[in-house]
Amino acid sequence: MPDDAVLAGLRRHARDLVAELAGPVRRVRLSSGQAALEVEWHGTVERTSVPPAPRAEPAPQGGETDRAVVRSPVVGTFYRAPEPGAAPFVAVGDLVRAGQVVGIVEAMKLMNEVTADRAGRVTAVLADDAAPVEYDQPLVALEPA
Prior knowledge:
The protein is mainly beta. The protein has one helix and ten strands; from the N terminus they run αββββββββββ.
């Protein structure tokens, strides 16, 4: 697919550009024809730790179908907060709406927002802050609210 190759090239150029710039970058937008790639960081680039999330019980088995998980869209490093020292996007007990950002996965120096695909109450954050995550790994558990 030509669009996939163009986007891969744009990602590569964005990664190289951000690596070459001195100082924090807030927004990068690259385009080629109809394809465009835009990345925005909220805050500074340096990282500090966010307090660890409470560890969750294992994912439900069998008959428990009312619980859902938000999964990692890519392989990378999971961050619970938009910037160092900031409050996490979500905490256990928070209500979230469909489309709300619940975390970030950094992959190849690009920040990928992780969004809830449905509304619900956060019952557990399943990945630690700054922890490596795999594609499709459960990150946040939700129950209907």
